[in-house]
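Before relying on records like the one below, remember that each one covers exactly one chain. Contacts with other chains, cofactors or solvent are not represented anywhere in the record.
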Amino acid sequence: MAMKIRLARGGSKKRPFYRIVAADSRMPRDGRFIEKLGTYNPLLPKDSEERVKMDMERVQAWLDKGAQPTDRIARMLEAAGVRAKTERNNPKKAVPGKKAQERAEEKAAKAAEAAEAAEAPADAE
């Protein structure tokens, strides 16, 4: 059985509230789970202690049994210091599009021309 530590959504419309649960990966997101491990309230400020609450002993027990955390839970565990930080690499997301690159090149060329024009009269004096 493939176990996941993941978020199960609760709360009303536009007011999300999540339970952190250990569940079989084949079960629906808000469906059957094996154990509730904590809560996550994204509406609270990021520095609030109430935003993410986890029973670290139980989370560690599930991780030792082979449960895989989802990306969001893995980030929460990294912030809590339970998991080592992993390097994330998505180089295509950071690269501007073709038109933006062309605009940047044009802007750099104009700036270089302006710098040369500003230097030329200074050298003539």
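The two ends are 82 Å apart (CA to CA).
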